[in-house]
Nitroimidazol reductase NimA, pyridoxamine 5'-phosphate oxidase superfamily (Amycolatopsis sacchari), 284 residues
Amino acid sequence: MSEIRPLTPRECVELLATQPLGRLAFSENALPTVRPVNFFLHDGDIVVRTSRSGSIARLTKEVVAFEVDSIDPATHTGWSVVVIGKVKPVTDVTDLVALSGPRHRPWADGERSHFLRIPIDIVSGRLLRLAEPGAVTDAAAS
Amino acid sequence: MSEIRPLTPRECVELLATQPLGRLAFSENALPTVRPVNFFLHDGDIVVRTSRSGSIARLTKEVVAFEVDSIDPATHTGWSVVVIGKVKPVTDVTDLVALSGPRHRPWADGERSHFLRIPIDIVSGRLLRLAEPGAVTDAAAS
């Protein structure tokens, strides 16, 4: 994968808003890990809605990375945006009511009452060119 | 997103082998970050081929997380596998020749002469059920 060009912060945020799914990188038991999560933007922050019992709900003020990308296998191109921010669990009742409204109730079944905000403290992104699909097979066959 | 069930280590490795793209989480300038990367499996390790000049090439013995997933918007289900391992840049000439062979030359244009191995020291995975696509719009419209 090669980088075509960096994205501006404005482009990064516009692209973030187009996707429902990102990958959250954080530390769990002193080891790095990554989880795919649904998210939405609210008041300029990333908001992740999750279960109270999972590992993401144990984050309280850690600095995390949140990556969103879209990579098109048909055109071999895509983009990747990375947000770095210090998480803030949402505990204020007014905020919880706002985030739990119908616009933000699309989540999978099961208890999903924990909200985590990730302020967009640092954002960066890049346009990418992917490896050619099928090239492994083609090269091996030649 | 909710977890349907954990995957066995064997299932995790079998699923890893089906995808060309993963997300590498590591520290850069003391902050977490994530990069989408092409990869392949070789002798049971994850192998990432990258440029000598990028941030991934500066990894020498860090513990990283490498996440691979496949999430089908049509069925609203998917899986995610996370490998944790201590990276090993490939410097042995015999290894470099093996990894640079035609089976592993499918990469994008540009210099891509740095190989990074990530041993599968710890692997875990889960079957997932996604949020319903379009539910945000549906709920907002109702």
Notes: Residues 133-142 of chain B have pLDDT under 50 and may be disordered. The helical segments of chain B are 9-16, 93-99, 135-141. Chain B touches chain A through 57 residues (CB under 8 Å). Residues 9-16 of chain B form the longest helix (8 residues).
